[in-house]
Amino acid sequence: MAKNIQIAIDGPAGAGKSTIAKIVAEKLGYTYIDTGAMYRAVTYKALCTGIQLEDAQALEKMLRATEIRLQPSQEGQLVFVDGENVSAPIRSNEVTANVSQVAAYANIREILVAMQQQLAEQGGVVMDGRDIGTHVLPNAELKIFMSASVEERARRRQLDNEKRGIPSSIESLIEEIALRDKKDSEREASPLIQAEDAMYLDTTQLSIDAAAEAILKLAKEKIA
Ligand code: CDP
Ligand code: CDP
C-alpha cells in the first residue's frame, strides 16, 4: 500500500508555496493545509474585537475561546472562525500588515502548532508555512524550502492585487515583503529558517508547473 507521507513546504511570502502546495496535494490526493491562514485568523479576530496586538496574554485568552476550522474545498482551503467563513477577509492588507506581530508570540504559536500537528497526524498532507520542517513536522518525509528574489515576489503580489482590483506600487510591496521576511526570520520563537534536511527550491525563474513537477517527483520517490 502507498505510504501517506508528510510534505512540509516553508519559505517567505510570495515564493509560491500555497499555489504549488495545492497542486501537489491535489495530484497526490492529499490534504493541503495552509498554516499561515491560522495566524491570519487569529490576527483578524483580534482586529475585529479590538484586542491589543501588544497584549500576548489577552490574545491567548481570546484564542483559547475561539474555534478555528479549516475546510478543504474546490477553491482551496476555507477558514472558519467561530463558524464564520473568513477566507477572504483574512487576506486584507490590514491583516497582512499585522500578522507577523501576532505570529511572533510563543504562546500563540504553541496552541496553533498543536492543532497543526494533530491535523497532520495521519500523514497524507502537504503543509505550508514558515516553521513546518523545523518545528511543526520535524519528521516529515519531504521538506522543501521555497524562495524567490524579493523583486519577483513583489511582482507576483502586484499581479494578485491587480486581479482583486487593489492598486499597489512595486516599491511599497518590496518594502512590505522585506519587512515581513525580516520579522519572520529574526523572531525568537520558531523563526523562518531552512531545515537542515530541506531541499532548497528557487522559483524566481521557475514556472508553477515546473516547481510542482519537481516536488511531485521527489514525493513519489519517498512514497514508493
Ligand atoms: O501567503 P503569505 O506568504 O503572504 O503568508 P502566510 O503564509 O499567509 O503567512 C502569514 C504570516 O503568518 C507570515 O508572514 C508569518 O508571520 C506567519 N506564519 C508563521 O509565523 N508560521 C507559519 N507556519 C505560517 C505563517
Ligand atoms: O504562498 P506564498 O505566499 O509563498 O505564494 P503564493 O500565494 O502561492 O504565490 C504568489 C503568486 O505568485 C500567485 O499568484 C502565484 O500564482 C504566483 N506564482 C508564480 O507566478 N510563479 C511561481 N513559480 C510561483 C507562484
UniProtKB/TrEMBL annotation:
<keyword id="KW-0808">Transferase</keyword>
<dbReference type="InterPro" id="IPR027417">
    <property type="entry name" value="P-loop_NTPase"/>
</dbReference>
<feature type="binding site">
    <location>
        <begin position="11"/>
        <end position="19"/>
    </location>
    <ligand>
        <name>ATP</name>
    </ligand>
</feature>
<dbReference type="GO" id="GO:0006220">
    <property type="term" value="P:pyrimidine nucleotide metabolic process"/>
</dbReference>
<dbReference type="GO" id="GO:0005829">
    <property type="term" value="C:cytosol"/>
</dbReference>
<keyword id="KW-0547">Nucleotide-binding</keyword>
<keyword id="KW-0418">Kinase</keyword>
<dbReference type="GO" id="GO:0015949">
    <property type="term" value="P:nucleobase-containing small molecule interconversion"/>
</dbReference>
<dbReference type="InterPro" id="IPR003136">
    <property type="entry name" value="Cytidylate_kin"/>
</dbReference>
<keyword id="KW-0963">Cytoplasm</keyword>
<comment type="similarity">
    <text>Belongs to the cytidylate kinase family. Type 1 subfamily.</text>
</comment>
<dbReference type="InterPro" id="IPR011994">
    <property type="entry name" value="Cytidylate_kinase_dom"/>
</dbReference>
<feature type="domain" description="Cytidylate kinase">
    <location>
        <begin position="7"/>
        <end position="220"/>
    </location>
</feature>
<dbReference type="GO" id="GO:0005524">
    <property type="term" value="F:ATP binding"/>
</dbReference>
<dbReference type="Pfam" id="PF02224">
    <property type="entry name" value="Cytidylate_kin"/>
</dbReference>
<dbReference type="GO" id="GO:0036430">
    <property type="term" value="F:CMP kinase activity"/>
</dbReference>
<dbReference type="GO" id="GO:0036431">
    <property type="term" value="F:dCMP kinase activity"/>
</dbReference>
<keyword id="KW-0067">ATP-binding</keyword>
<protein>
    <recommendedName>
        <fullName>Cytidylate kinase</fullName>
        <ecNumber>2.7.4.25</ecNumber>
    </recommendedName>
</protein>
